[in-house]
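Dear support,

I submitted the protein below through the web form. The confirmation email said the job was done, but the results page showed an empty box. After a refresh the structure appeared. I'm attaching both so you can tell me whether what I see now is the final result or a partial one.
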Amino acid sequence: MSRPKKSDKAVKETSTLAVKRAYDYIRDMSIDFAIRPGEQINEVDVASILQISRVPVREALNRLVVGGFVYFDPGKGFFCRKFSETEMRELYSVRFDLELGAVRQACQEGTDESITAILSDWKKIADTYTSVSQEELIQLDELFHMRIAALSSNSERIAFLQNIYERIRFVRKITIETNAVRESLVHDHINLVQAILKHDAELAVKLLEDHLWINSQALKENIRTGMLRIYAADMS
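What the results page shows now:
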C-alpha cells in the first residue's frame, strides 16, 4: 500500500518549521560566538545535527545575512559574523538613538496602566536580582527595554532594537558581571519608569542617556575580554 502524500500545506508548514529551527540554531551560536568570528558555517553539519535537508539551512543562512548574524563570501560560503570594535560602537550608537526616541514617545503615548505594570515588576526584581543569574538578568533587561519601546506601539523600532540587542548581547553579558553594575542597572530601570509614569520626557531622556552611556575605553576592554574568552581554548 502506498503512503498518502503530504498536502501542499503540510509540506510548507514542515519547511517553514525546518527553516526556523536552522535559523534559531545558527543565530544562537552566532550571538554567543559558539561559532568563532569569521569561521565558516558548514551547511552539511548543521543539516545533520538538526536532521533536516540543506535547503532550509541555506534559506536560514540567507535570512541571517540580512540580520547581520552571518556574512556571505561569494565562491566560499557563509561565515559567522565578525567581532569588531567598530561594529559594536555603531550598534550601541543606533541603539542609543532608537531608545531615546522610544522613551520620548512613551512619555507621550504610554498608558499609566502599562507603565505601572513595568514599574511593579521591577520593584519585585529589585528584591531578588542578587539571586538571578547573569543570563536571566540580561533577558530581563532586554525585555524591559522592549516593553518601554512597546509603549509607543512602533513595531519597526521594536524589531530593530531586538536585532541590535541580540547582536550586542555577548558584550553586554561582560558589562554586567560586577555587582555594582547589576545594582545600578536595576535602580536605573526603576527611576526611568517612574519618570515615564510622570510623563516627564526631559527627565526620562536624561536618565536614559546616563543609563545607556558607555565610554569607548570600557567598550574596547569588554571586546578584548570577549575575544580572550572566545579563543581561550587556543591559549591554554
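Response: this is the final, complete result; the empty box was a page-load delay. Residues 85-235 form a domain with the Four Helix Bundle (Hemerythrin (Met), subunit A) fold (CATH 1.20.120.530).
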